[in-house]
Amino acid sequence: MNKIPRPTPEEMIRKSFARFTDEEIIPKAREMDEADQFPRWMFDKIAKTGAFGIRYPRSVGGAGGNTTQFCIMVEELARGSMSVAAFTAMQCLMGTNFLFEYGTPEQHERLLKPAIRGEKVASFALTEADAATDLANVKTTARPDAEEWVISGSKTWITNAPVADFFTVLCQTDKNKGLRGLDFFLIERDTPGLYVSKKFDKLGTRATEISELAFTDVRIPHENRLGKEGQGVGNLMRILSVIRVMTAALSLGLARAAYDQSARYAMERTQFKKHIGSFQLIQQKIANMATEIWASHLMTYTTAEMIDQGQRPLKEASMAKYYASEVACRCADEATRIFGAYSYSMEYDVQRYYRDCRFLLFGGGTSEILQTIISRECGVS
Amino acid sequence: MNIVVLVKQVPNTTDVKIDPKTGNLIREGVASIINPEDRHGLEAGLQIREKLGGTVTVISMGPPQAMETVCECLAMGADRGILLSDRAFAGADTWATSTALGMAVRKLGEFDLILAGRQAIDGDTAQIGPQVAEFLRIAQLTYVRRLDAQEGKVIAERALEDGCEHIEAPTPVLVTVLGALNKPRHPTVEGILAATSERSPVEVWNAADIGVKVQDVGLAGSLTHVVRTFTPKGARDTRRLEGSATVIAAELLEALRQKEIRLGE
Lengths: 381, 265
Ligand SMILES: Cc1cc2nc3c(=O)[nH]c(=O)nc-3n(C[C@H](O)[C@H](O)[C@H](O)COP(=O)(O)OP(=O)(O)OC[C@H]3O[C@@H](n4cnc5c(N)ncnc54)[C@H](O)[C@@H]3O)c2cc1C
Ligand SMILES: Cc1cc2nc3c(=O)[nH]c(=O)nc-3n(C[C@H](O)[C@H](O)[C@H](O)COP(=O)(O)OP(=O)(O)OC[C@H]3O[C@@H](n4cnc5c(N)ncnc54)[C@H](O)[C@@H]3O)c2cc1C
Known about the structure:
The structure holds two protein chains of two kinds. By secondary structure, chain A is an alpha+beta fold. Chain A has three domains: 9-117, Acyl-CoA dehydrogenase/oxidase, N-terminal domain (Butyryl-Coa Dehydrogenase, subunit A, domain 1, Orthogonal Bundle); 122-230, Butyryl-CoA Dehydrogenase, subunit A, domain 2, CATH 2.40.110.10; 233-377, Butyryl-CoA Dehydrogenase, subunit A, domain 3, CATH 1.20.140. Chain A is 50% helix and 15% strand. In chain A, β9 (270-271) and β10 (274-275) form a beta hairpin. Chain B has one domain (2-216): Rossmann fold (3-Layer(aba) Sandwich), CATH 3.40.50.620. In chain B, 27% of the residues lie in helices and 25% in strands. In chain B, α2 links the parallel β4 (55-61) and β5. The A-B interface holds A 1-9, 11-13, 15-16, 19-20, 24, 48-51, 53-54, 58, 62-65, 69, 73 and B 64, 67-68, 71-72, 75, 83, 85, 185-193, 195-198, 200, 202-206, 209.
């Protein structure tokens, strides 16, 4: 008689984080956005759910979940606040992945496990002033000296930098080897010679903090190189599909929020003595939003499933990120049209979606470079 | 302390629609949730376990899909879940529901504290808690909005219409709780993955498992039967008062007087 099936973990993660988003995030989303700073208290609340360990095994304090579950979780969070979803994704994936994969047991005890518990904030630094889409141009150098590495250079647009306790930083170890001369290094915040700039003033995701990092002869121990020599970019490629499908899931969350509000408003707002949803041109917007969201959903979760089956679907993940982020921007745009002047008011959420969706276009590859990659994967280049 | 929490799966709406033909609740298209007050009951149980040690067991009677509710409780931190599910339980009124829940608690053996919601948002009778306590012949504290437990006793504050009551009771005792009691925690990711795995500590018990006769539970064991369910017609007589505040107040008082509605002594 024990044959009654359990709900799937995916269903339960969806339901549980939907509730978390409705109860904890949505009532505070505007306040967090206007406060214009990293909401540590929200980070702590998310930590209590064990979210930061979703991808990691129990041996390091994680939950042993998969990419699909991770995507569902960040999608639901993004429905409430892109900022919150973005710093959660950073903590779950980019900020901690290389420390998990290539860190020493001592580094796991001192940094990774506390990061999974939410006691330390992680950050990930690739981008430089002249090396953004073109990562091969990274100029921050790591030079061996005795038993140490000496880091010099600077990074920009680094999410969480103003609040982070440690950074995973892409540095050049051999300038003659191009992409094969790049490695990741673990750098802790209080290391002498590390300077964190003041935070950027930015259009969207205002509840995340972003700044520059400057390294002046920052000396770190030998074991702080994360991964084998010259394999930084190769190792980044190993999780690139996950980063892209995760960004697609963030996009999906924002698109759904814009759609949900639009559908409700279309049935509430009356003009010409009718609710505006009775006008075919508004119906067209709703139909297109719903259709594109469904397509994004299918692309995102089909790709996540491929990753969970052990594949590395770079083409599909690029397509999912490209498509879903553009859909998020279209949905936010259509929502502003449906809300009319009220979308222009800071008292409605729609303006926040409209600002926050732009974030999705750049991280994880711009739409332009993704189209280039997709075409190359299709054999046309 | 060994704690049992009674949880019910209910439709996620207080605006339950009733099928005019059959008189049954229309559940299609409405998502199911844990009865809101029951989450507070579980939270109270988990906090007491954290303080005093012991175990928290949840029991839910319902159709197979109530498995989700039991698993959600495990994900929040309960140690063990029992789903009472059997065609024989179907169509139960509150008496038959209490019989089944009471027998299940008995089968569990030793317990110190039973927690239940004050009331379910669909059935709304607030009868189950008290009836289960009577069935087990233990003390009951209802409408509890503050609760502390020590070995051997609980100390509670009951919300009454005209004030509150501070009261202590020795264990074993049954407590029905209000939402004001606490803020339920969210399930953890690790808890969700464990609760949904094949090895999660959920048992499904049927009528034979809890040792009840089929005629004592479900529709057969119900003492009451729903003859008809309907929405009361009684259209409201609405009058709109207009004018200055003083005029409105005067007219309102007069109207209340005419209806012989007494305004205090
Ligand atoms: C909110 C936010 C958070 C960020 N967080 C981080 C972080 O935590 N860590 C980090 O390392 N970086 C971070 N970044 C930086 C992000 O990764 C870069 O913005 C991204 O790599 C694109 O670089 P860029 O914006 O300088 O654009 P550029 O590379 O300068 O591109 C400018 C334009 O040229 C186009 N372009 C460039 N190359 C090509 C080409 N080959 N073919 C066709 N078109 C091309 C681009 O598509 C774009 O339209 C963040 C950025 C933002 C906005
Ligand atoms: C006269 C009458 C006839 C009924 N006939 C039918 C019928 O024919 N078919 C039918 O489907 N339903 C019927 N019901 C509804 C059903 O009996 C009740 O939903 C059920 O007994 C619980 O009562 P309640 O919802 O009022 O819970 P309440 O007493 O308001 O709930 C209080 C608390 O008791 C606990 N609790 C309640 N129910 C359960 C449960 N199932 N498992 C675990 N804990 C629980 C919870 O902690 C809950 O918060 C009938 C109800 C009445 C009053």
